[in-house]
Write a structure and sequence with these properties.
The complex is a heterodimer of chains A (502) and B (172). Chain A is of the alpha/beta class and 502 residues long. Chain A is 43% helix and 15% strand. Chain A is built from 15 helices and 16 strands. In chain A, strands 9-16-15-10-14-11-12 form a seven-stranded mixed beta sheet, with helices on both faces. Chain B is globular. Classes of the chains: A alpha/beta (502), B alpha+beta (172). Chains A and B meet through helix 4, helix 7, helix 8, strand 11 and helix 11 of A and strand 5, strand 6, helix 4 and strand 10 of B. Strand 13 of chain A pairs antiparallel with strand 10 of chain B.
Chain lengths: 502, 172
Amino acid sequence: MLDRLGVLERSAFFREVEPEHRRALADLAREELVQAGSHLFREGEQASAFHVLAAGQVELSLPLASPGSGDHPEQVPAMPSLPTGGGLRGGITLRTVAAPGYPVGWSAMVEPYRHRVTATARTDTTVLAWDREALHSYARQHPQFGLVFMRQVLALAGDRLRAARLRLVASRYDAEVVAIQALLDQHGEHLVVTSPLHKIPHYLQNRLTLADALAVVELLQSSDDQWERTLADVIADILEGVRRELRIYQQLQSIYELVAGAPDDVDPVALREESCQRFVELFDDMPHVISGQQHLPERTGSIIVMNHLVNHVANSLPNRFVLTLDTHFVSAMLLYRHYGQAPVRVIRAGGRREHGHRRYYDRLGYIYVSSRVPGEESARRIDPATFQQQAAAALAAGVNLVICPEGTSVPTDRSPLPFRPGAFRLAASLSPEPQIVPVAVANFDAPLARSTAAAVVHPPFRVSDLVADPDDQGQLLSFLNDSLHPQYVGWVRDAMARAEQG
Amino acid sequence: MSHAGEEMVMIDEGRLRALPFFAGLAEPVVAALAAEGQERDLAAGELVIEQNDEAREVFLLEAGSVELLLRFEGVGDLFMGSFQEPGSIFGWSALRPPYRYTDSVRCEQPTRLLCFSRASLEAVMAEDPVLGFVLLQRVTSDVARQLEITRGLLGRRQPQPLPVLEPAETDF
């Protein structure tokens, strides 16, 4: 027979609960048997009871997102199980609970009383269950107990939240963790049990102990033990990507802070140049290919058009703000380096809730155009006359303008999308007519530290040289999408090939 | 965090009522909590709480937005997300041992916070543990909501295939 009181007495969760209440709770509980492979509860179900593991094992998992089920704008297609988790079929393992006395279903204690995860018995399992109403009623009758109990639930939820946040940061490094674990499994027989190398995968799970992982590896690279030394060398290689990604991440954050946090009286021109300089330092360390600079016009005051790539998650700051790396690369590594002048970009107006976007771009004196932001019903309107005036003034002042004429971003293998006519119409409307300088970019949608990015400049042209009547919308669109676009597709493939060759 | 020199402003209870956290609480309770709370206006970029500091206050966001930062040894502060919804709660480490903030919070823009000291909340809860249960339950509910969002990001996060974010479009 199950010793319910014994389960509660050995439970860390109930340690602060007075013995009289533990006894009462042991009497109030009912036992539930769950067969191996069966669900104790599923995500989304009403949480009608508070559960504590008594015997066996329960896996808590997050089912994969199904189309339309997400409530987050960041929703992306479903993913396979994270490699570090055990991984129930079709879900992500959050945690396996094997310690008797550990709560496995506390959603019954907080609104909206709905389970947030799925609990599945890994072995034949017994849980203690308290009906929500009965537990709430007991807490009302014994308010001091209620306070202690609820504080424990808060602590539990808080611990889970912290773990989830740490795992979110760590998830981008899972590939390294898996690789190192596999390496250690493979060569484990040669390593002494006490070797600090065994700790590396655990250190890597948590960003807080990343420095420890790197320090251990460094130390053991000069170990007296040959196997330790050899494996530490291999692991150091594996971790190089982690080091570089972290360095990039820090640099991106520091550039964002430089711009968004600049004092109000800083001149946008100076800020653009400082930002470009910082990006040069960042990109200089990254594998990249630049070619075709001989096609850059002698003087500034051109419109540089480029295909636009989405950001890889490893290159993005995990708030809603995205530092678009391809445009910063072209601005800094190509134009700023060549001319010693930071260009002005034509960018979409930030959404109403995109505070990071506005904090950053407002400071740089960029030129906004109207935009549609996902999740916002109405478009952000910018008066076309204002745009025309600002763009014309910048070009007349000899400033290069960088424009992405697709109007949005896609992965390299789908790039470019058809072009919108705004940039070309602008050029054709001005006198003297500025040159259009096409730049094809590739691989900025891959992790920057682990792939080679490329930017290739192609010969400049004037719209009026290629379109008989640029004011004729039909003629202009025909040129863009029947002539320039197919050519550009080839240019992007060429950029990919050059990146591959390094 | 020290806020020397800042002007502390008492909270009008009507403003508390506008926040979901206080919905359904009896009028005297809201009045008592309003008397314990203080309003604080902060500028963009200003740090509200710092990771590992003693957790002495709980905060409710009334206006503006704040960003959440996790500090990692040898790496620095990493963005973990933002709070924008009025009524969002942070600093709840002040309600549980070991009473240390587990992350830093910084204003993304000019921000107005409603601040409740740990000492005053503990006093309110000690005097009326039934109310304390409800308050802790509501804080936990908000923590659970944040947990759900974080797990959602974790579950939907992947290096491939792209895109990770739906790109916005220019109308140009």
